[in-house]
Structure formats: C-alpha cells, structure tokens
Amino acid sequence: MPFRWCFAIALMISVLLPASVEAAARLDEPRETPSVSFERDVRPIIREHCLHCHGEEERPKAGLDLRFVRTMLDGGLTGEAIVPGDLEGSFLWHRVEADEMPPGDSKLTSDQKATLAAWIDAGAPTLRPEPEEIPPPGTAILSEEDTDFWSFRPIERPELPEVAHADRVRSPIDAFLLDRLEAEGLGYAPEADRATLIRRLSLDLTGLPPTPEEVHAFLHDEAPDAYDRLVDRLLASPHYGERWAQHWLDVIRWAETWGFETNTARPNAWPYRDWLIEAFNTDLPYDRFVFEQLAGDTIGIDAATGFLVAGPANLPGQIGKDEESMRQARQDELDEVVRTVGEAFLGLTVGCARCHNHKFDPITQRDYYTFQAVFSGLRYADRRFRGPENDRWMAQAAEVGETVARLREELDAERSSLGLQPPITPESHEERFEPIEARSLRIAVAATHNGGRASLEELEAWSAGAESVNVALADRGAKASASSFALENQTRHPDNLIDGKSIAEGYFPWISERPGPAWAQIDLPEAVTIDRIVWRRGFDGFPVAYEIEVRRPDGSWITVVDTSTRMVHEEDRRAAADITIDGLSSEEVERLVSLVSQIRDGKAEQGRLAAGPQVFAGSFGAPEPTYLLRRGDPMQRQEEVEPNTPTVLGSLELSSEAEDRQRREALARHLTSPDHPLTARVMVNRIWQHHFGTGLVSSPSDFGRMGEPPSHPELLDWLADEFIQSGWSVKHLHRVIVASSAFRQESTPRDEALAIDADARLLWRFPPRRLEGEAIRDAILLASGSLNRDMSGPGFDFFNQRGGLSDYIPVDHDDPSGWRRMIYAIKIRMQAVDVFGPFDCPDAGQMTPKRTQSITPIQALSLWNSTFIMRQAGRFADRVRADAGADLTAQIDRAVWLALSRPPTEVEAEQLLALGQEHGLDQVCRVLLNTNAFLLIE
Asked: Which is nearest to 898 in space by CA: 873, 915, 864?
C-alpha cells in the first residue's frame, strides 16, 4: 500500500477513535485492570505497527521478535522487552509510551497504549499455547482473528428463514432476500411482464436479444413450465457460452498479444478462448474447470492451460542477458501467474505479498513464494495442441516424409549421373584435400544458403597425420581476420572463429557486416601440414558457394577447395539463374535446383506438420528452485521454499522435490475440495454479479479485509453449498437464480425504497444496467440482420495489425468476416477498439472482475455518428423493408419489435412515424439503436 494511504489510515484512526478515560489518566495513578486478550486485543496492534521491523524480517531489528509472548520475554539486544505484571520494568512499554516505537508518523493511539499497558499489568497472558519450537522470523503466525474472518470460515448450509411474504418465495434465494428486506420495511416489486422477462433472460444468458418470433411464442405459451423451458433453451444455446466466457476473460485479463513495449502478437492464443466457450456450453463441472486450467496438459487438454499464461510478459528478446535482468523477468512472469490464480479462484490478493507480508490479510511473503513454487516449472510458450487436428497433421507429416524421401532418391540419382560431388552439409561441414604445407588459410564465400550475411561459429584447420589437431586456435598462436564483421554486437569479431567456443555455451559467432561476398582468414604462427578444414554454422547464412585457399611458406596462394562443381545443399534458396556448375547446361542446373527446391519445401512442410498444431498455453518442465526473496529482490535470495498454498488455507503437503505435474494437480485438488472455504464462494458470487449487476460481495476478486463484506452472508453460503452439492454445475446455479422472484421483478423504482437502499443492493427491484460494449455491438448486428454466427477458430481483426509497436489503424469491415460476435475479435492488450471500447471494455492491461458503468460524451457520439452505426442502421432499414413491405407504419412496428422485443407505444409510434416521414426509415432505425430501451437490461 502506498505510504500516503498508510498515513491517511493512521490519521483517521487517531481522529475517529476517542481517547478513553483510563488512557488519559496518569500511568502512576491507580487504575482498574481490564480483561485483555492477547489474540483479540494485543496481537492486532503488534501486527499493524510492529511486525514489519520485529518479526517479518529475517533479522529482526535489535534482535527483538514480537511474534510470540515467549520471544518478547527473551527480548533482544536490550534485554527483556516485557516483564509480566511490571509495566515500569518493561522496556517495550517505555519506548511505546515515549512515541519512539513505532518510528515514523504511525504512532499508537491512546486506546491502543492503554490496551498494551493493561495486558502487561495483567501478567501478559496468552489464551492459546504457543509452539514448542519457535519458527524462524518471517513465518506466518495466524491468530484467531485471522482464521475466524468470514471468508476463511468453513461453508455451512444455513436454514431458510421464515418470511412474511412466503407467497413470493419461488426459490430458496427469495427467503434470504425477503428476510433482509422485511427487516428494513421493504418488499419485492411486482413481477415484470413476459415480454420484459424474455428480453432480460435472453440478454442475461446469451448477450443477444430475442427475436420477435421467440417473444410471440413465449407470450402465448400458457404451460406452467413455460418460463423454465425458456431458461433451458437459452442455457442450451451456443451463444450462452460466448456470453459467459467473456466474463471470465475479463477476470484473467486474457489477450492475444504479449503486452509491454512491443506488444507482439500471440497468434496461437485463441484455442483457450474456444475451450472456455465450450466449457461453459457443456456445463463443465467447476471443479473440473479449475483442474483443466491448472493441469489440463496432464490429461491431454492443452488449450485450457492458456489460463496460466493469459497475462502480459516480456519476450525473450526483450530481456537483458545479465543475470539480474533475467531473474527479474522470470519473477515478473511468475507474479502474473500467482495473481491470476490467487484472484480468479481464491478471491485473494496474494500478489500483494511479493515484497513483504500482506498488510491486511493473513498472507505472508513466505506464502507468496511457496504459492509461486507451485508454478516454477511453467514457461510462457507455445505447445503442441493435441486432439483430432494433431492426429491429422501427424498422418500428413508421414505422407510428406515419403514424398521427400522419393525426391531425395531422384536427386541422388541425377547427381550421380552428372558426376557431381556430394552436397554441403549445413551444420558442420568437413572439406578434405591432399596434405599441403600452410602458413595461412582463407574461406572466400560467394553465396550463403539464404542470401544473407555469411556466418561461421568456428573455422578449423586440422594437421595431417595420426595425431591430428586443430591448429587454428587462438591458444596455439593463430590470428584471425575478415573482410568485415557485424557491429551490432562487438563479440561477433573474427577472433570468435578461433576461440574454440560454441554458440551453445553462450558465445557469438563471426557474422559479416552485410550480405554478399565475404572472406575470413586465419594466419598460423608457423607452417603446418594440413589435410582438412572444418567449418561450423553460425547464426545467419552458412556458405554454399565458396573457395578455400592455402598460403604456402613461399607466400603463394593455392585453391584447395572449389564448390563451383558441387550441387549445393537443399536449404540453398538461390534461383537456377544464380547458379553455374562447370560442365552442366542451364537446363541440367534448373532440373537440379527444382529438385532441391521441392525437397527443401517438403522438409519445411514435414517439420511444420510434425511439430503439430500449436497453442499458446505454456510449456512445463522440471521445476526450478524457488527462494524467499528479501523485499522481493531476485538478487537477494534467502532459503529455498517448498510448493504450497497460503498457510491460512491449509497445506498441499509437498516437498521441494515434487514434480511440476504433482504440484499443479495438488493445488487443483486442494482448491476443489468441498471443504475449501473460498473456491465455491468466489465463483457463485461472480455468477450472482452478472445476473444482478453487483455481487453479494461487491469486490469479486478480493474476499480479504480490504474487500467488501457480503450483503447477505447466509445466502452466499447457501449458494456455495448448493453449487458444490449440485456437482459444481454452473447451469444449475443459473436456474436457481433466474427462477427466483428477485430476478423476475420489475425494475421500476419506488421512492420509499430509494430512500432506504438507493443502489437496490437489497434487491427490492431488479437493478437495471447497461449492456457491455461487446453485447451492444452484437445486438446491433443481430437487429440489422448482419450477425455472423460462426464460432471458434482464429479471430477477426479490428485493426490493421495484430500487435507491434506502430499505431493501430481501425479496419473498416463491410463484410461478414468482421461481423462475428465481438468475443471473436483479436484481443490486443492495452488497445481499445473504436465505438465500443469506450463502453468500459477492458483493455486486458489489468484484471477486471467488475466493469465500471461510465457515461461519457464519446459513447453517445460514437453510437450516433460512427460509420459502423450509420452502415448498420441502413442494413437494419433494408431488413425491415424486406420484412414489412412498403407501408411506413408497418415498418416502424417491425423495427421496434426487432430492436426492443415489444410493440411501440402510441407515443413512440406517433413520434417515429413523424421522423420516418421527414427523414426516412434509416433514421428511425438509427434512433432505435440509440435508445435506453435497446441498451439496457431492465
């Protein structure tokens, strides 16, 4: 927490808490000793004001550890900090009384001082036994206050309260809500009419308004179960998954770019979005939903673990090669995972304990790093996307491999018939020749396989004879020179050719300054007889056309290797016109180059298919050690920690030797245990939020002390238990909620209720709310008849590019490719889309468990004047003309039905008719798309 806020809180406490009479009295005067509890009264004071210096650090200041009464008695460098029953003899008390402790502005209040004094006077009692072995400083010490906090208590199914208006109880939910309402002298509003209910349900569950035909069918369905069947139909719609997947993507700030400065695209991220939509549509049990996102790769469901890498991260090329930069980047990656899992599933801000113990919740810095250790085998990367598509690719790879093998046989036969030497091998190539005495050797590169800069890792010259050695080494006296070398990194000097080091060891090769002819030369300290040279491939282009020359002791140069009579390697990308081979006609060369080209392309395709389809879902390997970091500094490692969950929630019972798979599976099992106090509570609250606009806990990703307490705690627990007992069925929970009288109320406000509960948190009416930007756009496309209902697969573009540094220019879609539901748009991090982005659509820069509902001029102007709206209003009008014919009155009636799911009122019909007569049907449709009735769920 920023210091200014800590200071503000301390100031508020000192102003708002009146000093007691006892605290105001002189300490040497007789006073009555109150009953003081260490756990209830004293420990909270010490935790807030003292432990950051005397208990959280590895080396407490002055050696004083204030986590336990026993360590207080032991004291530090100054001796006993407290003497039970002897206030004047307690050194700690004198420092507190003099306002020397705690240091800074956050002093103890008079009441807090009186509490501490009373506790010492009473003999410094503790109500629970302290551990036999004192754990090291920084270890979590949980008080009764911590474990008894409402969100950490076990879930218990409460009894349904009895209410006066039992006739309005359609669902157990109503009993809890009415009990609170009646206590405030309030009650439910009347039930909404059927047209309102079907529109509300359709927008709520699918994000799309109902068609006029669906409304008519529901209005005339007199069966007792008509409403229930409507709910079942909407939950069975594929559009349900699209709607509710968007809510989850907000929570984890998923995007299809890496973020930060370069914001490069993640082209294989979209399968996670498709998995998520399918998970909601098939009502994947929530315990399985959690498991697959944490460990789906262990059961062949690769896309689901895209959840773990949903957040931003730096690409490898953006990270400095020094150890500090690499450690810092790795910590940042893992921090994103800790925050995502902690907030999405636990509703706790675990990430706040990265540098110090959590200031409000019982989460220590050690808890943070043990939680991080669960994911220490994770890397942000693409992985094979197993499934039917992968199986098809494997079969195709085998077929392409057979074709490549046949082409190679054909090429070998062709080469043999023309008397050509074997081709150059790309990684490490050896050239043998008759022994020759050499003082220098030179490789003159005419062309590389890719037309790029010549590059070599090593250039070796081997002595002739049984005891052959590489004489071209710096430590043997060899000297290297070259026509040029790349300047972007000074370590790519020609001396690298003779250092005997490899790229795998982190050493750079020699790279010429520019494409085209280049040479590298090695001068030997004395004449040596050599019979072969070896070159090893570097970073850029490897030689495919070159000569090797040797300078003899007399100073003359002789060519010992000339590749002009050799067919180049199959990676050579030169055209036939750029290759000449002595003794071959242009037609023969063209034939050889054609075969090489086919083999090269076939190998590339075989490699692509063999790698399989890819998904950005993280790769998993052996867990790296995880350390407690002093103040979160990756360069200040302390002891290694084991993988675990925050102590207040139990233990995973794993050691540091546990494999990556064991760690993530253990966490998934722990989170979905029926006894876990948070997992079910957090999810049912999210579902409630998206039905009523606000959760029972209005801080949906913070169930800690800085979050809001539940408005109806018994109802929250009942829903959580019902969720678990239903087999973790999300659709069951939807049915329970939308079946309630609370959900079926009118949204009309009442003055007496507004005076008591202006925000309708007690749900005395259905709280109307504006649709999200995505749903507004989808509803416009549906009304105009333009909506493209294609599901799954790579998304469409809102911009001219899918990531990168340059400006994003909006794409003007005037075809169905850009008229899919907005969830299928390529999500670019930190970039808002035109028209609908200003409607509080998150930009995936931060997790957004609850969207704001702003009202700005940009929203109104965009929805009225944008090219998209004008074009769709015209298409809407065309659809209405096709449906209703030429009569303007009939057209207006049809347009209102399509836009608002009801007929126009008399006033609306009259005003819209006048508008249509003066300005045309297009403007009528444009107005309808801008009405509150179109934009609200009410």
From this structure: 873
pLDDT of 33: 41
Note every long-range contact of 776-780, with CB atoms under 8 Å and residues 24 or more positions apart, other chains counting: 776/836, 776/839, 776/863, 776/935, 777/822, 777/835, 777/836, 778/207, 778/208, 778/821, 778/822, 779/203, 779/207, 779/208, 779/209, 779/934, 780/868, 780/869, 780/872, 780/929
Q: What is the pLDDT of residue 107?
A: 83
Tell me how far apart the alpha carbons of residues 126 and 69 are, in angstroms, rounded to a whole number: 7
For the chain, the first-to-last Cα distance in angstroms comes to 38
Return the axis-axis angle of helices 270-281 and 238-252, rounded to nearest 10°.
130
Cβ(46)–Cβ(66) below 8 Å: yes
**Which regions of 245-293 does DSSP assign to beta strands (E)?**
none
d(CA 460, CA 440): 12
Between the CA of residue 717 and those of 688, 711, 842, what are the distances in Å? 13, 12, 30
How many angstroms separate the CA atoms of 819 and 790, rounded?
Answer: 9
**Average pLDDT of the residues of the chain:** 89
Report angle CA 817, 821, 823 to the nearest 5 degrees.
110
Q: What are phi and psi of 224, to 5 degrees?
A: -60, -30
The residue ranking higher by pLDDT, 448 or 712, is 712
> Up-side HSE of residue 594: CA atoms within 13 Å toward CB?
8
Positive/negative CA dihedral, 865, 867, 872, 878? positive
- HSE-CB of 462 using CA atoms within 13 angstroms: 17
Give CA 32 to chain center in angstroms: 57
Q: What is the spatial distance between Cα 186 and Cα 365, in angstroms, rounded to a whole number?
A: 46
- Cα distances (angstroms) measured from residue 233 to each of 226, 241, 579, 700: 11, 13, 68, 28
What are the residues facing 737 on neighbouring strands? none
The CA distance from 387 to 301, in Å, is 8
Q: How far apart are CA 231 and CA 743, in angstroms?
A: 12
* CB contact set of 440 (below 8 Å; sequence gap of 6+): 521, 522, 523, 524, 550, 551
Residue 83 pLDDT: 84
Helix (H) or strand (E) segment spanning residue 144 = helix 144-147
In 10 A of CB 176, how many CB atoms? Answer: 26
pLDDT of residue 14: 39
Q: Does residue 161 have a cis peptide bond before it, meaning omega lies within 30 degrees of 0? A: no
Angle, CA 348 vertex, CA 662 and CA 46 arms, to 5°: 110
Q: What is d(CA 64, CA 250) in angstroms, rounded to the nearest whole number? A: 45
Task: Report the largest interatomic distance among the alpha carbons of the chain, rounded to a whole angstrom.
Answer: 118
- Closest CA relative to residue 904, chosen from 893, 891, 890: 893
pTM exceeds cut of 0.85? no
Helix and strand numbers, DSSP H then E, in the chain? 30, 15
Backbone angles phi, psi at 733, to 5 degrees: -65, -40
Q: Strand pairing partners for 482?
A: 520
Residue 224: count of CB within 10 angstroms of its CB:
6
Residue 2, judged by CB atoms within 10 A of its CB (0-12, 13-18, 19+), counts as: exposed
Distance between CA atoms of residues 861 and 835, nearest Å: 9
Distance CA 439, CA 525 (A): 7
pLDDT, tens only, 163-174: 999 999 999 999
Are 921 and 928 a contacting pair, CB within 8 Å?
no
Asked whether the beta carbons of 938 and 200 are under 8 A apart, the reply is yes
- Rounded to whole angstroms, the Cα distance separating 306 from 672 reads 19
Contact predicate 650/265, CB 8 Å: no
Backbone angles phi, psi at 427, to 5 degrees: -85, -50
Return the number of other C-beta atoms located less than 10 Å from residue 802's C-beta: 20
The single residue listed with the structure tokens 């719609």 is: 237
The DSSP output letter for 40 is I
Q: What pLDDT digit, counting tens, does each position of 231-244 carry?
A: 999 999 999 999 99
The phi-psi region of residue 804 (left if phi > 0; otherwise alpha if psi is between -120 and 50; otherwise beta) is: left
Q: Which two tokens stand for residue 830?
A: 């930190």
Sign of the dihedral through C-alpha 140, 145, 150, 154: positive
